[in-house]
Amino acid sequence: MPSDAIWAWSIIFVATACVIIRPFRLPEAIWAAIGAGALVLFGLLPWQEALTGIEKGLDVYLFLIGMMLIAELARLEGLFDYLAALAVEYARGSPQRLFLLIYLVGTLVTVLLSNDATAIVLTPAVYAATRAAGAKPLPYLFVCAFIANAASFVLPISNPANLVVFGARMPHLTEWLRLFALPSAASILLTYIVLRLTQHRALKEESIARSVPHPKLGRGGKLTAIGIVAIGIVLVTASALDKQLGLPTFICGGVTAAIVLLLSRQSPLPVLRGVSWSVLPLVGGLFVMVEALIKTGVIAQLNALLHQAVAQSVPQAAWSVGIATALADNIANNLPVGLVAGSVAAGDHLPVPVVSAILIGVDLGPNLSVTGSLATILWLVALRREKIEVGAWPFLKLGLLVTPPALIAALAAAIR
Description:
Blueprint: H1 3-21, H2 28-41, H3 47-56, H4 58-76, H5 79-91, H6 95-113, H7 115-132, H8 138-150, H9 160-166, H10 173-198, H11 200-204, H12 219-240, H13 246-263, H14 269-274, H15 279-295, H16 298-312, H17 314-332, H18 334-347, H19 352-364, H20 374-385, H21 392-415
């Protein structure tokens, strides 16, 4: 094995570990940028190929910017606080009904705004609403964490990882729904059933208020809601026409924010400050590291192994790669795993069940642990702001109960 390949893999391994562990509490983006920079600085990846890697992420960057703009606008205009308070009102004093309603709202937000929006914006709103209702927030906050991944392959727009895995090979919307409608339904239903059973005692032992102070939804909030619906329509149309989703998302998010801010005569600075811009260099650094894996032959070797498995049995290969990808998410996070999986899937025409299993593993596997996805990490950050700590071990114990049934059901529906 060439020494350059060993050095490149070592740098990538250390950088990925630092992205997950966050030594010295430095942002994830810094470690991804350091890893990418080290590969170029030590001559392990030519700067031209590093730029190629960064350029490959253009559609993802545009998608993330558009979604983060509209999500931050919705937060500032109180849209999510309004929806959370509405859920408490419709629960009519029933913790079990409130649990279901928050699950439904979380599903809707994930499907139309991506799983990161559920983690970043819905989580604080649910915390505020449940505290106002006199409930213990944690069971309802777990809903935000788990539905963010369980519903993230209903539509191509539901998870940035979907763009990473498929890239320019994104299926038509009708084809996407044919492939993932049933697996998504299985994932959402099984996740709810098991999560609800695990929280049965906690919900049974508490009582909640029948109503809470209801924030008024102003003109900006209503316009933002209309903008979200419009974005959903535009993106579904773009997907149906087999167009890339990044630019339409960016334009829709920017136009909606501009209209709301102009009509309400607000400065754009609060919205721009609230956007997590560090996500962009994080993703860019990961793209560069995956480019190094391609150069050192790792992707080719994985591709060869996958084709050997496919030649023996397509269903068995699909089951194996789906489960392996789901487990890998929790070791290295689903963004780098999704990038590697997408590069492997792009190598040759793989059977549809195998590619579907890869995507389900990338999207649903992170529900096993707190390190599985960017959305779950963002959920933890949102909880820490409210002085709530959820350790890795308690989350893993819950994830071990919730994730396997949903993963098996989703894979079975996709591989049928």
